[in-house]
Amino acid sequence: MQTPPSSGPDARALATAxxxxxxxxxxxxxxxxxxxxxxxxxxxxxLSELENGRRNPTLDTLFAIATELSVPLSDLLSGEEVHGxxxxxxxxxxxxxxxxxxxxxxxxxxxxxQLSKPHSPGVREVLTVLTGAAEAGPSxxxxxxxxxxxxxFVAEAEHLYRGIGGPASAVxxxxxxx
Length: 178
Fold this sequence. Notes:
By secondary structure, the chain is α+β, with helices and mostly antiparallel strands. Helices cover about 25% and strands about 35% of the residues.
Protein backbone atom coordinates (compact mmCIF):
# COMPACT_ATOMS: atom_id res chain seq x y z
CA MET A 1 0.00 0.00 0.00
CA GLN A 2 1.41 3.37 -0.98
CA THR A 3 1.71 6.02 1.72
CA PRO A 4 1.41 9.41 0.01
CA PRO A 5 3.29 12.32 1.53
CA SER A 6 1.26 14.26 4.09
CA SER A 7 -0.72 17.10 2.63
CA GLY A 8 0.85 20.48 2.25
CA PRO A 9 3.81 21.81 0.31
CA ASP A 10 6.31 21.29 3.17
CA ALA A 11 5.66 17.54 3.41
CA ARG A 12 5.79 17.09 -0.37
CA ALA A 13 8.99 19.12 -0.58
CA LEU A 14 10.56 17.02 2.19
CA ALA A 15 9.63 13.74 0.49
CA THR A 16 10.98 14.96 -2.86
CA ALA A 17 14.22 16.41 -1.46
CA UNK A 18 15.04 13.39 0.69
CA UNK A 19 14.14 10.99 -2.12
CA UNK A 20 16.52 12.77 -4.48
CA UNK A 21 19.32 12.59 -1.90
CA UNK A 22 18.75 8.87 -1.33
CA UNK A 23 18.91 8.16 -5.07
CA UNK A 24 22.03 10.30 -5.54
CA UNK A 25 23.87 8.67 -2.61
CA UNK A 26 22.85 5.17 -3.71
CA UNK A 27 23.97 5.84 -7.27
CA UNK A 28 27.26 7.41 -6.14
CA UNK A 29 27.94 4.31 -4.02
CA UNK A 30 27.20 2.07 -7.00
CA UNK A 31 24.47 0.22 -5.09
CA UNK A 32 21.34 -1.00 -6.84
CA UNK A 33 17.86 -0.59 -5.38
CA UNK A 34 17.64 -4.34 -4.69
CA UNK A 35 20.93 -4.37 -2.77
CA UNK A 36 19.99 -1.31 -0.72
CA UNK A 37 16.62 -2.88 0.09
CA UNK A 38 18.22 -6.14 1.23
CA UNK A 39 20.91 -4.44 3.30
CA UNK A 40 18.62 -1.92 4.98
CA UNK A 41 15.80 -4.37 5.67
CA UNK A 42 13.35 -2.23 3.68
CA UNK A 43 11.20 -3.31 0.78
CA UNK A 44 12.31 -2.47 -2.74
CA UNK A 45 8.91 -0.87 -3.40
CA UNK A 46 9.26 1.28 -0.28
CA LEU A 47 12.68 2.50 -1.42
CA SER A 48 11.39 3.22 -4.91
CA GLU A 49 8.48 5.24 -3.48
CA LEU A 50 10.90 7.14 -1.20
CA GLU A 51 13.27 7.94 -4.06
CA ASN A 52 10.38 9.19 -6.16
CA GLY A 53 8.94 11.38 -3.40
CA ARG A 54 5.74 9.34 -3.08
CA ARG A 55 6.30 8.23 0.53
CA ASN A 56 7.10 10.16 3.69
CA PRO A 57 10.46 9.17 5.15
CA THR A 58 10.47 8.19 8.82
CA LEU A 59 13.42 8.56 11.16
CA ASP A 60 13.87 4.78 11.42
CA THR A 61 13.79 4.36 7.65
CA LEU A 62 16.32 7.13 7.11
CA PHE A 63 18.69 5.70 9.72
CA ALA A 64 18.44 2.24 8.08
CA ILE A 65 19.30 3.74 4.68
CA ALA A 66 22.11 5.95 6.03
CA THR A 67 23.66 3.03 7.90
CA GLU A 68 23.56 0.77 4.83
CA LEU A 69 25.07 3.52 2.64
CA SER A 70 27.72 4.21 5.36
CA VAL A 71 26.80 7.88 5.53
CA PRO A 72 25.68 10.05 8.43
CA LEU A 73 21.98 10.82 8.72
CA SER A 74 22.63 14.47 7.87
CA ASP A 75 23.61 13.43 4.31
CA LEU A 76 19.91 12.71 3.80
CA LEU A 77 18.60 15.84 5.55
CA SER A 78 18.94 19.58 5.24
CA GLY A 79 17.06 21.15 8.13
CA GLU A 80 13.91 19.11 7.54
CA GLU A 81 11.88 17.83 10.47
CA VAL A 82 11.54 14.05 10.47
CA HIS A 83 9.36 11.86 12.66
CA GLY A 84 9.84 8.49 14.29
CA UNK A 85 7.59 6.51 16.61
CA UNK A 86 8.28 8.85 19.53
CA UNK A 87 10.92 11.30 18.31
CA UNK A 88 10.71 14.35 16.08
CA UNK A 89 14.16 15.51 14.97
CA UNK A 90 15.44 18.60 13.17
CA UNK A 91 19.03 18.89 12.01
CA UNK A 92 20.54 22.08 13.45
CA UNK A 93 24.13 21.77 12.28
CA UNK A 94 26.92 19.60 10.98
CA UNK A 95 30.70 19.94 11.00
CA UNK A 96 33.82 17.84 10.58
CA UNK A 97 36.92 17.73 12.72
CA UNK A 98 40.04 15.59 12.25
CA UNK A 99 38.54 12.60 14.11
CA UNK A 100 34.84 12.63 13.20
CA UNK A 101 31.79 14.08 11.54
CA UNK A 102 29.43 15.69 14.06
CA UNK A 103 25.70 16.41 13.84
CA UNK A 104 23.41 18.31 16.20
CA UNK A 105 19.65 17.76 16.30
CA UNK A 106 16.76 19.37 18.18
CA UNK A 107 14.49 16.58 19.47
CA UNK A 108 11.01 16.32 20.87
CA UNK A 109 10.61 12.99 22.65
CA UNK A 110 7.04 11.81 23.26
CA UNK A 111 5.94 9.54 26.11
CA UNK A 112 6.22 6.48 23.88
CA UNK A 113 9.25 4.36 23.03
CA GLN A 114 11.45 5.03 20.01
CA LEU A 115 13.69 2.03 19.31
CA SER A 116 16.70 2.79 17.15
CA LYS A 117 18.65 0.09 15.36
CA PRO A 118 22.43 -0.05 15.80
CA HIS A 119 24.45 2.57 13.97
CA SER A 120 27.86 2.09 12.39
CA PRO A 121 30.66 1.01 14.75
CA GLY A 122 31.90 3.74 17.07
CA VAL A 123 29.00 6.17 16.56
CA ARG A 124 28.50 8.05 19.83
CA GLU A 125 25.35 9.91 20.88
CA VAL A 126 25.16 12.66 23.50
CA LEU A 127 21.65 13.58 24.65
CA THR A 128 20.96 16.66 26.80
CA VAL A 129 17.39 17.06 28.06
CA LEU A 130 16.25 20.69 28.02
CA THR A 131 12.68 20.39 29.34
CA GLY A 132 10.70 17.52 30.81
CA ALA A 133 12.24 14.13 31.45
CA ALA A 134 13.34 11.28 29.19
CA GLU A 135 14.99 7.91 29.17
CA ALA A 136 17.74 7.15 26.63
CA GLY A 137 20.57 4.78 25.90
CA PRO A 138 21.10 1.11 25.09
CA SER A 139 17.80 -0.79 25.20
CA UNK A 140 19.19 -3.13 27.86
CA UNK A 141 20.12 -0.26 30.21
CA UNK A 142 18.48 3.11 29.40
CA UNK A 143 19.25 6.04 31.68
CA UNK A 144 16.55 8.39 33.06
CA UNK A 145 17.33 12.09 32.56
CA UNK A 146 15.73 15.29 33.85
CA UNK A 147 16.06 18.78 32.40
CA UNK A 148 19.71 19.84 32.46
CA UNK A 149 21.10 16.28 32.50
CA UNK A 150 23.21 14.66 29.77
CA UNK A 151 23.89 11.06 28.82
CA UNK A 152 26.59 9.83 26.40
CA PHE A 153 26.53 6.33 24.91
CA VAL A 154 27.93 4.35 22.00
CA ALA A 155 25.06 3.70 19.59
CA GLU A 156 26.30 0.53 17.92
CA ALA A 157 23.66 -1.54 19.74
CA GLU A 158 19.88 -1.14 19.71
CA HIS A 159 18.99 1.93 21.78
CA LEU A 160 15.87 3.80 22.79
CA TYR A 161 14.37 7.19 23.56
CA ARG A 162 11.26 7.65 25.68
CA GLY A 163 9.64 10.70 27.25
CA ILE A 164 8.81 10.25 30.93
CA GLY A 165 5.48 11.65 32.08
CA GLY A 166 4.94 13.59 28.87
CA PRO A 167 7.01 15.08 26.06
CA ALA A 168 10.58 16.23 26.59
CA SER A 169 12.72 18.54 24.49
CA ALA A 170 16.39 17.75 24.02
CA VAL A 171 19.52 18.32 21.98
CA UNK A 172 21.25 15.30 20.45
CA UNK A 173 24.82 15.32 19.20
CA UNK A 174 25.92 12.39 17.04
CA UNK A 175 29.61 11.76 16.42
CA UNK A 176 30.60 9.48 13.51
CA UNK A 177 34.28 8.48 13.76
CA UNK A 178 36.42 8.46 10.64
